[in-house]
Design a protein that fits this description.
The protein is α/β, with parallel strands linked by helices. A 7-stranded mixed sheet has the order 5-4-1-6-11-8-12, sandwiched between helices. Strands 16-15-14-17-18-19 form a 6-stranded parallel sheet, sandwiched between helices. The chain has a two-stranded antiparallel sheet with strand order 2-3. The radius of gyration is 23 Å and the shape is globular. Helix 9 packs parallel to helix 14. The chain is built from 14 helices and 19 strands. The chain has 2 domains: 233 residues, Spore Coat Polysaccharide Biosynthesis Protein SpsA, Chain A; 185 residues, Rossmann fold. Bound molecules: zinc ion. The site of zinc ion has 5 residues, from loops.
């Protein structure tokens, strides 16, 4: 596997911290960002790294040396004039392999490069972007993807009020292929991947996949962000993205959102007080925040998958406005009993995912790498509590929504509390 690192950033906004040093040499816990990246790659068996330089090229070359101290070999390309992220990769194309991963030199990250590449190959995409939700989607460029994670369009911010978009952001790590880039070489000289080249590729029918990851990757291009990634590194939050993490599983209706009606119209979906604070606290403490909700309305034909996605986009948007995000949303579209007009017979089944079955939690544990022994379910019904029991995790029953008064199942929570916010506060304490 070959890695390319775009290391030409000038770091104007970091001037107060790093003087004339180029951005990739900004120290995090006593080591340059670039070194963190090189060590992460070398630990995964990467041996070939192409470093794309511009500003501060000599300092970066000198720092890298011949690579022997990490067991890697470097090749360098210095851009003749600032060309933007895509422009500099195109200019260096002769040094690059048929398939390679690109990272930005001003990010702190710890990702499984092999799994990223594997995903790219499986989806047979032309390009694959690492993507994740963030805590400020309203001022981020967002990816609109289809159900299989193929990008339909990149939506630049600002986003219109009342435009309900999925919280999915390009995290600035890509799998790229040389033959595709070669086709742009003559006609695209300078510009960035996210702002120019990817939109152009999409408009020309190329397939860009979004690889949704919960691994750590953050830009460190301002003093505040540099402090944040350093604090995260020292607290072990950078490396933990690749190990098994604890999760808080949230029920939706009556726990995070106000309505308990079976079919919720877009206008009716509102967050309960403290719901965003609950999710945000889980985010900040390094817990994954995962929504698990039964949506038999899909099987009954009362609501389409597309309509449900818009509803969840609204939920993500409302959470995002308060600095909170869900790492993943799981819903069960099934329903076991037939006899509804307009129902979808293929979804009228006894499934393993409809709560109180633990299927969604077990699937999340498998897909997201969750440590169930340290995880919790927060819900407002006995069904949620029984789901937790069935998955072997602890649970908090909240007084909002049903408040446990549904009486459908005999199941005792680990504790009872007022709301999702107080539940998470107690879980974290
Ligand atoms: Zn199901």
């Amino acid at each position: 596997m070959q890695l390319a690192i775009i290391a030409g950033g000038k770091g104007t906004r970091l001037r107060s911290r790093i003087g004339d040093l180029p951005k990739p040499l900004a120290p995090v816990a006593g080591k340059p960002l670039l070194q963190h990246q090189i060590e992460m790659a070398a630990a995964q068996g990467v041996r070939e790294i192409v470093v794309l330089t511009g500003y501060g090229a000599a300092a970066i070359r000198e720092f890298c040396g011949d690579g022997s101290r990490w067991g890697v070999s470097f090749q360098f390309h210095e851009e003749t004039t600032p060309l933007g992220t895509a422009g500099c990769v195109l200019e260096a194309l002769d040094l690059l392999a048929d398939e390679f991963i690109v990272l930005y030199g001003d990010t702190m990250l710890d990702i499984d490069l092999h799994r990223f590449l594997q995903y790219h190959r499986q989806t047979e995409a032309d390009v694959t972007l690492l993507a994740h939700p963030n805590d400020h989607p309203q001022d981020s460029d967002l990816l609109a993807v289809d159900e299989r994670g193929i990008v339909r369009t990149i939506l630049p911010y600002p986003h219109a009020e009342g435009e309900w978009l999925e919280n999915l952001v390009n995290a600035a790590a890509y799998v790229l292929t040389k033959p595709l880039l070669a086709a742009y070489r003559g006609r695209f000289r300078s510009g960035d991947f996210a702002k120019q080249l990817f939109p152009l590729m999409l408009s020309e029918g190329h397939r860009i996949a979004a690889y949704r990851s919960t691994e750590y990757i953050k830009d460190a291009g301002t003093p505040e962000r540099l402090d944040k990634v350093e604090a995260d590194f020292l607290a072990g939050r950078v490396a933990q993205g690749r190990g098994a993490r604890p999760a808080v599983f949230f029920d939706r209706d009556g726990t995070l959102t106000a309505s308990t009606a079976l079919v919720i119209g877009l206008d009716q979906l509102e967050l309960l007080p403290g719901a965003a604070a609950a999710v945000r606290a889980a985010n900040r403490a390094g817990y994954l925040a995962v929504l698990v909700t039964n949506q038999p309305v899909i099987a009954r034909g009362d609501c389409t998958v597309a309509e449900l996605r818009i509803l969840h986009n609204k939920l993500e948007t409302l959470l995002g406005r308060e600095g909170a995000y869900l790492d993943q949303i799981y819903y069960c579209p099934h329903h076991p009993h037939g006899g509804y007009p307009g129902e979808r017979p293929e979804l009228k089944i006894e499934c393993a995912c409809r709560k109180p079955q633990p299927g969604m939690i077990l699937q999340a544990a498998d897909e997201l790498g969750i440590d169930l022994a340290r995880s919790w379910m927060v819900g407002d019904s006995t069904m949620d509590i029984l789901t937790a029991h069935n998955a072997g995790i602890r649970s908090a029953l909240v007084a909002t929504g049903n408040g446990g008064a549904d009486g459908r199942y005999q199941a005792e929570p680990t504790f009872r509390t007022d709301s999702a916010a107080t539940a998470v506060a107690r879980i974290l304490s």
